[in-house]
């Protein structure tokens, strides 16, 4: 169906979009445009990752600053005002927390784990690593370059 958002863009349509100033999508665009290529292989040390950490409000800013100052991550976003419900000591618990979204590389995860466990007040802090499957190449390069300095 012409105009359907779920169909593949043809080579001719991609070229027409490029000349019209629109961004092409699909395999043809990935082959031509480095800004829409896939990031490196998930699981390698050069893979960008987003690490999720929850922390009490009173320590989240200090934790974020320490991570950035040590160049373990390129960016930490602190999202305030989340409510976490979880099992602890055989009881349902509820805590008001902040969520830290940490943009780093897989090669920095071990250092991040050490820092978080050293500075975090929880006995078992939440720390989950998600590989970035795709992203804007200049942003992914910025993460890698920032950490490498």
Automatic annotation (TrEMBL):
Alphabetized SUPFAM superfamilies for the sequence: GlnB-like
GO biological process assignments: response to metal ion
Disordered as annotated region, ranges: 1-44
GO MF annotation terms: copper ion binding
InterPro entries the UniProt entry points to: Ion_tolerance_CutA, N-reg_PII-like_a/b, N-reg_PII/ATP_PRibTrfase_C
Residue stretches of biased makeup (Basic and acidic residues): 1-18
Protein's UniProt name: Uncharacterized protein involved in tolerance to divalent cations
Organism encoding this protein: Spirochaeta africana (strain ATCC 700263 / DSM 8902 / Z-7692)
